[in-house]
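#struct-queue
[09:14] JT: dropping the first one here, sequence first, then the structure tokens:
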Amino acid sequence: MKRLPLLTLAFCTIAFGACSIFKKPAAQSQQAAVITDRKWKLVELEGQPVADKINGKEPFLLLQTTDNRYSASGGCNGIGGNFTLEGQGRIRFSAGMSTKMACEDMSIENGLSKVFTLADNYSISGDSLSINKARMAPLARFIALK
């Protein structure tokens, strides 16, 4: 007789715990919806502020959900490839294409290209997106363009 309440309690604990598993993907897809299909302006790279225009162009990042492709610019060439959102703020970028023009200032572009090879997670705070490596300081920080 004492076993019945214990079994009931164990069953309820397992059942309620299982329910929380199904809520996580919805939260993850909501967060993914916040960062994708928006244009993000690069404002900080390796802890240093980035000018509004580099070589006359605005540095940016765009993550497209239709084909999981990203496009970006550090103010000179177009950079692009594929990205994967792996849940819980994890992101992976794979190398793709890049134009090969030579511009006066290539430092931001070179730094941004490096971010895509190192990054493994992201965080969002309001309209700010940080691309990070492990728990270190953000590699790059972006502001959402309206």
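[09:21] JT: and here's the second one, same format:
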Amino acid sequence: MPPKTAPSIPKALALFASRECSGIARALANTRDRHAGIHAARKALRRLKSLLRLGGDVFGESLVDIEARIGKLATGLSPLRDAHVAVTLAHRLAGPRPSAGWAEAIATLEHRRDGRLVEALHKDPRFLKRRHAVRELGDLIERLPWRAVKRSVVEDTLDAQQHRVDRAQKRARKASTPANLHRWRRRARRLRMQLQYWKRVLRATGKTAHHRAKQDKAATQVMSKLSDALGAKQDLRALRVQLRALRKPTLTAPLVGQIEAELKKYRKI
């Protein structure tokens, strides 16, 4: 039996959304490791958007402005996050004893990453503007009609999102373009996050998963593996572009060749 103090499904969803907003603000205030904070903020923004979409049919037009604000914050952080991911991935590919080529490439990527961060902090010292935008975002989210987000609304949304993933997969299988792969990854990632959140909500409210339990568990595992694989493929392609942009073919040719070998591991995706 669930405890008498267990929140309702709408209250639990609202609470999780509020916590994500708080987490984004804390991540942006992280001065010990700015790059880690930016990466955490970007991930939390994606989770928040996925969570809000569970009530999309109820929120209607109110969600349009909120998603625009989330998009603006995420877009502003993307170049910083991408630059850091490129450095992290380059370090991993280079191994504990980088070749001269990797060492020079990594130094260049780190210089570019750190330069972008300095420029961003110059325009928005301590990310105060961004943190203020997150507080405003939290206020708007708190005023959404959460009480109308019933269980049936959430489960209908999950079913619809699964269909979107299936359609995106078929399109990507038919034409494996970067755009199609990105769409497939984005939809798979959103479904994974939504299923994970739904599991947490049911646990917090003391509700049973009922007939969806096995289905959701299996789907979460599949979407997690798929999203990670597509993400790795996308990051490798992005690093390849950045290395080629250095315009030092003699230096980067072996590095690009290593990336090509890594990409072959994902050729079936």
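[09:30] RK: nice, looked through the second one.
[09:31] RK: The mean pLDDT is 90.
[09:31] JT: good to know. Residues 9-266 form a domain with the CHAD domain fold (CATH 1.40.20.10).
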